[in-house]
């Protein structure tokens, strides 16, 4: 009988120990979730903006487009840019020099569509715009179909 009581006591002790360990681990997990920085818990997302066409008429003076901003109601919050995609269209056989810009800097764009991580860490609420010039000796051209997609976290 004493042996049975000892086994029963050990099983109860093991169960208590397991319960204590589980409660402690659960408590630590809840604590960690409550204290993680808000940026780490921020939802990621994206916003898309289309920009009206613009006439590029000079090689020595840039043409800038209207600023692209997140559409109203986009839950950007404190999100920061992780990647930006762009595109624009030109008539066949035409070319321009192009940049994608925000208030602090511009990035030269080597082609009519692409993506970059050069703006990573910049606030996802930051307005972006295109800047264009003509190559020397080219005739004026209308750039259309401009779109910017901002992925943020």
Count all strands and give the number: 9
Largest sheet: 5 strands, antiparallel
Q: CATH superfamily of the largest domain, called what?
A: Galactose-binding domain-like
Strand fraction: 25-35%
Taken in chain order, the helices and strands follow as HHEEEEEEEEE
Taken together, the total number of domains comes to: 2
Radius of gyration based on Cα positions: 28 Å
3D shape: rod-shaped
* Average residue pLDDT: 85
Helix content: 10-25%
Low-confidence stretches: 28-41
Look up the CATH topology of the largest domain: Jelly Rolls
The chain-level structural class is alpha+beta
CATH classification, class level of the largest domain: Mainly Beta
- Number of contiguous helices: 2
From the N-terminal CA to the C-terminal CA, the straight-line distance is 64 Å
CATH architecture of the largest domain: Sandwich
InterPro entries: FlhE
Organism: Vreelandella azerica
Keywords: Cell projection, Cilium, Flagellum
Protein name: Flagellar FlhE
Structural topology:
Layout: H1 2-35, H2 38-41, E1 45-51, E2 54-56, E3 63-64, E4 81-89, E5 97-101, E6 106-109, E7 113-116, E8 129-133, E9 141-152
Antiparallel strand pairs: 1-9, 2-9, 3-8, 4-7, 4-9, 5-6, 5-8
Short note summarizing the structure:
This protein has helices at 2-35, 38-41; strands spanning 45-51, 54-56, 63-64, 81-89, 97-101, 106-109, 113-116, 129-133, 141-152. It is of the alpha+beta class and 153 residues long. Strand 5 (97-101) and strand 6 (106-109) form a beta hairpin.
């Amino acid at each position: 009988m004493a042996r049975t009581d000892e086994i029963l006591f050990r099983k109860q002790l093991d169960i208590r120990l397991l319960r204590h360990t589980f409660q402690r681990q659960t408590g630590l997990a809840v604590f960690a979730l409550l204290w993680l920085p808000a940026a780490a818990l921020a939802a990621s997302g994206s916003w898309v903006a289309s920009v009206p066409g613009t006439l590029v008429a000079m090689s020595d003076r840039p043409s800038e487009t209207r600023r692209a901003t997140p559409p109203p109601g986009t839950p950007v919050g404190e999100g920061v840019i992780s990647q930006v995609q762009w595109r624009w269209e030109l008539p066949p056989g035409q070319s321009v020099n192009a940049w994608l810009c925000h208030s602090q800097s511009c990035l030269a764009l080597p082609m009519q569509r692409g993506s970059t991580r050069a703006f990573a860490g910049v606030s996802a609420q930051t307005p972006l715009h295109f800047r264009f010039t003509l190559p020397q000796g080219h005739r004026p051209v209308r750039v259309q179909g401009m779109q910017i997609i901002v992925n943020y976290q």
